[in-house]
Amino acid sequence: MDSLLLELKNAKHDTIKVKLFLHLSAECDLKDLYDYSLPLKELCEKNLKDVPKSSSLYFFYKKNLGDALNNIGYYFDKQKGELTKALEFHFESLTVQKEINNKKGVAMSLNTMGQIYKTQGDLNKALEYTHNGLKIREEINDKIGIGTSLNNLGLMYSELGDMSKTIEYYTRATKILEEIGNKKGIALILNNLGDYYYSKGEINKAIEYFERSIKKCLEINNLGGAALSLNNLGQCYRVQERHCLGT
């Protein structure tokens, strides 16, 4: 962070400053995300007033404006818990990404907004936005994005209690993540499947998936993921113990 801040201080051209602000936004703690994303937004907006739409710089500043708006939305969602305000910034980001036909950015905004609607309890809107984002990710063959969208849909259908669709989307997500060797993503889905079976009272099934998730996490030294699944596994054994004791 110190070296990036020093580079930013010495940067002469706005394109370099934009790249540095974006890098700082990616590296900083969540609590500091707004402090780097807001000047990034303002810098892009300033330059867009003078850059012709036919210029490659127009796309550059517009895309980074969309990313800045997305970051600010993420900040208000995850750091401040202000979901309505977060949605406002994600809507702005979506509009910007659509204007320049940046399909990857459009899909990311749709998926993120789907997650916020899920948090708000509006599962119909959550499903609508996530399905629309998935469709675009499939069009551009963004396999990591496809896996993320499929996993999110699995979570949503799980909340709705739709077993067949929950399993369908988790299975599809696992398949595509296996194709690209994304073990971290696979471990997360295995843990989610464990959660699903736990919620249904199918404790043996839940144990099976939590154990598979732990194994996958340890293969890539993902200790945080392993700890999460170990904790869930402990809950399963606690339930089994209660059943054995008749309590």
Overall, the morphology is elongated
- The radius of gyration over CA amounts to 21 Å
Could you give the order of the helices and strands?
A: HHHHHHHHHHHH
Low-confidence stretches: none
Tell how many strands the DSSP assignment holds.
Answer: 0
The mean pLDDT is 92
| Biggest beta sheet attributes | none
As an assembly, this protein is single chain
CATH level 1 class label of the domain at 1-101: Mainly Alpha
Number of helices: 12
Query: How many angstroms does the end-to-end distance come to?
Result: 54 Å
CATH architecture of the domain at 1-101: Alpha Horseshoe
Helix content: over 70%
Structural class: mainly alpha
Q: Give the CATH topology of the domain at 1-101.
A: Serine Threonine Protein Phosphatase 5, Tetratricopeptide repeat
Percent strand equals under 5%
